[in-house]
Each structure stands twice: as C-alpha cells, then as structure tokens.
Design goal:
Elements lengths: L3 H15 L4 E6 L5 E2 L3 H8 L4 E7 L2 E6 L3 E6 L4 E7 L8 E7 L3 E7 L5 E6 L7 H4 L12 H9 L5 H5 L10 H10 L13 H21 L3 E3 L6 E3 L25 E5 L2 E5 L7
Parallel strand pairs: 2-9
Antiparallel strand pairs: 1-7, 3-4, 4-5, 5-9, 6-8, 7-8, 10-11, 12-13
Helix pairs in contact: 1-7, 4-7, 6-7
The structure holds a DNA duplex (16 and 16 nucleotides).
Length: 276
DNA sequence: ACCCTCACCTGCACGC
DNA sequence: TGCGTGCAGGTGAGGG
C-alpha cells in the first residue's frame, strides 16, 4: 500500500507502539518472507532483541535492535502491521509474528505475500544491497533541483516511469509520481531528457510538496472497531488530485482526467493542465 | 547500460 | 451464482 508517506506513518506508529519492547520469540508463518536467512536462523537471531528505534529509508522500514541488528522490512503492495494481545488468533494472511515482552504481539500480515524481511548488521546497513542501491531521500539535502535535472538529462524514458525508479529518487510510487507530475503540470509521457530546467525545478518542488502534504495530513494510528486491534489508518483515495480519478473533473481546470498505461502500470493525468 | 515484459500472489469488482 | 477478465499503492529477474 505504501509509498514514502504511508511508510513514514507506519514508522511513526511502530515507534510509538513497540519501541523499547523486547522480542521474546518470532514465528515465521510464510517462509519466503525472509531473505538471506532460513526462517529458523532468522527467528533465532532476533530472539531476545530489544527494539531501540524505528527508521525509514525509501520504502524500507528499519527496525533497529540492540547488538548490531537491524530488521529491514518492505511492505510491497499489501504488507501490514498489527499490534494485538497475545491471545489473538493468527489469520491465514499472517506472515510473521513477533511476541513481545508485554503480553502483546506485533503481527505482520500480507495477503499477497510480496512483502520482504531481512536481518542486517546495523553497522553495515548502508552497504546492504537493498539500501545501497537507493537514490536520495526526497526530503534529504542531496535531493536538489540540480540533482534532479542531472538525472533527467541522462534518461530517455518517460518521466513517469523514471520517477518510479528507486535508484533515482527513493520513495515515490505509482500514486505520488502521478500526483507530483500533476502538481508540476508536466505530461507523464514526456521523455525525461525533454524536460526543461524550469520544468525540472517545478517537478522537484512538486515531489517535495506532494509527499510532504501526504505525510502531514496522512494518517494516524487507530483502534479498530474491535478495540484490542491497533494499526495505522488508511486514508483512502479521495485526497488525490488525479490518481484513480479517471473520467472525473480536474480539480484545477475541470477537464476530464485521463488514464493511460505506461510500463504496464496506470498513469492518471489531466490532458489540459499537463499538455507539455 | 538501458529498456521491456513477465513473474511473484491474492482478492475484488466488473460484465456476461 | 458462476466464470472469465482486468485491476491493485512494488520490485526483481531475464530477455533483447
């Protein structure tokens, strides 16, 4: 579900919910969830670990434990954490369970099973193949308009597809790529190297604004109708300007939002506002 | 090095 | 009701 803003919300929620907790025991229900280690070795190495802090890099959640251990988590499409009492039954979509030292457990559900977890050394985190490949953080100092323009100059791919490339900028996905292009009034079909400097600058600002707004207005942890289940709230699609708004009026000009396919994924845009 | 398609999974909404 | 199709916010492998 997650692009940078959603991952950020999960990170904040995890931080409030499980930081300083100790992991007493781990059960892996879906073995392919775990990369690089057997589920048994994974469980063994996590056992007894105390959660020190939770962070994020791109769309990766970084759960730092004591003793030089960090758990990397990628939610992919449908990964989701729940915080529940120990007696709660395990569901069929549950991929892993972390039993904590307070009679609660952190459950990782993932009905499509695309999600990934990997245990790494905290001291070598940046060298992992997952993180070392990532481009700059959109909120970081390395992500300048100059940097973006340089990246665009080097690619003939469509600008929309380029924005999904995590090695160029980390954290954008299908929603916010489209939203950023709308904010910047840039046609998603444009080749990256066809963008002018001023378009690149607009896009840079669009990316920042769209992600920033999503993080701020985004979502918060909620108790479900069943009060004993807590996870983070999914805000829904209504807050997007173009994403999944095919056939609806553009919020800026009233023209009909269009859907096209690029790289076998949907792109939504306003043909009038995003002519160039 | 790039670009494209497919594969990985499950479930839901749709039309017939 | 059932079945087929298309779609889903992500990525990595493998081909050209």
């Amino acid at each position: 579900m997650p692009e940078l803003p959603e991952v950020e919300v999960v990170v904040n929620w995890l931080s409030r919910t499980v930081r300083e907790r100790q992991i007493e025991r781990v059960e892996v229900k879906y073995p392919r969830l775990i990369r690089a280690l057997s589920p048994e070795a994974f469980s063994r190495r996590l056992k007894g670990g105390t959660i020190i802090k939770i962070g994020r890099r791109g769309k990766y959640i970084l759960i730092e434990l004591d003793k030089d251990r960090t758990l990397l988590v990628h939610l992919r499409m449908t990964g989701e954490f729940f915080y529940v009492g120990n007696d709660r039954e395990i569901r069929k979509q549950t991929a892993a369970v972390f039993y904590l030292d307070n009679k609660h457990k952190l459950v990782f559900d993932d009905h499509r099973h695309f999600g990934v977890m990997k245990l790494a050394q905290t001291s070598k985190l940046e060298n992992t193949e997952e993180l070392s490949a990532l481009g700059p953080e959109p909120f970081g100092k390395d992500f300048t308009d100059k940097y973006l323009y340089g990246v665009l100059q080097g690619s003939a791919r469509s600008i929309k597809e380029l924005l999904l490339d995590q090695t160029k900028v980390a954290g954008l996905g299908n929603i916010y790529a489209a939203e950023a292009l709308f904010a910047a009034k840039i046609n998603p079909k444009l080749r990256a190297n066809e963008l002018s400097k001023s378009q690149a600058n607009r896009l840079h600002k669009g990316i920042f604004d769209v992600l920033n707004r999503a993080v701020k207005t985004g979502k918060k942890a909620v108790k479900h109708a069943d009060e004993s289940i807590e996870n983070y709230f999914e805000g829904g699609y209504d807050r997007f300007a173009v994403y999944r708004r095919e056939g609806k009026p553009c919020l800026r000009c009233g023209s009909m939002i269009k859907r096209i396919v690029q790289g076998s994924r949907s792109t939504f845009y306003c043909p009038n506002c995003q002519k160039k």
